[in-house]
Design goal:
Order of helices and strands: HHEEEEEEEEEE
Distance between the termini: 122 Å
Helix content: 25-40%
Strand order of the largest sheet: 5-4-3-2-1-8
Number of helices: 2
Structural class: alpha+beta
Radius of gyration: 30 Å
Mean pLDDT: 87
Length: about 230
């Protein structure tokens, strides 16, 4: 009887129990790996959002630092073909700033371009998803009489919640919500000493917003007037 029992092998019930245990272990292992993969994807996405926001702030800071306005105009004002300016407007959900700057990079040889250009930062709706707002950059390679229009627009950060700008007036040491170097009732011919930028991005950790802020000093706060007597 002992030899027959040893030669009999396993029963169907034992096989089913073994298969069930293997299936349970396999499902636990799959769940662990699936959770790790989802966590890694989520962390990577959040890191990308932070990187995108920081890169946008870095670029905007670099170009705002080179902002300028100039007093150099032709003797006959009607013959003017360009206007330098620094114009910041309050808006929702994203503020807007347009300015002239030494920020253009020439990418081709023998082109009739300088480092002077018009630059703007503002919020724009996504053409495919109107409810989504992107932070965009506008650049026009040549300065004309409309420093707040024209040029090529590219996305800096997609799907933002808000973009806020504040301007430090060097005369009053107060932060202003808007700035206009072209108007008599504004800050005629002047630039702010600093610009404070705050970006709030959507889709952070657990869906919470990501808040990034920086302050940028502007080197040339007075208009260029060399060779003017």
């Amino acid at each position: 009887m002992t030899r027959r029992a040893a030669a009999r092998g396993v029963t169907l019930l034992e096989v089913m129990v073994s298969v069930g245990i293997l299936a349970l272990v396999a499902s636990l292992i799959y769940g662990a790996f699936d959770g790790m993969a989802k966590a890694r994807t989520s962390i990577s996405r959040i890191n990308d959002r932070y990187h995108q926001g920081r890169q946008a702030l870095s670029r905007m800071s670099r170009e705002l630092e080179s902002a300028f306005v100039s007093k150099h105009l032709p003797l006959q004002l009607g013959a003017a073909v360009r206007q330098t300016a620094f114009v910041g407007r309050k808006s929702r959900p994203a503020d807007r700033v347009d300015f002239t700057a030494f920020a253009h990079r020439r990418l081709a040889r023998d082109v009739h371009e300088s480092d002077q250009c018009e630059v703007g930062f503002f919020g724009a709706p996504d053409p495919d998803r109107p409810a989504k707002v992107d932070l965009v950059r506008r650049e026009q390679r040549t300065i004309d009489l409309e420093p707040t229009k024209g040029g090529v627009v590219q996305v800096l950060v997609d799907d933002i919640e808000s973009f806020e700008l504040r301007y430090l007036d060097p005369g009053t040491s107060q932060w202003a919500e808007s700035w206009d170097s072209t108007q008599l009732v504004g800050q005629l011919g002047r630039l702010p000493s600093q610009v404070k930028m705050t970006i709030i991005l959507k889709n952070g950790v657990y869906g919470a917003p990501i808040r990034l802020m920086t302050r940028t000093p502007i080197a040339m706060q007075s208009p260029l007037d060399f060779a003017i007597k």
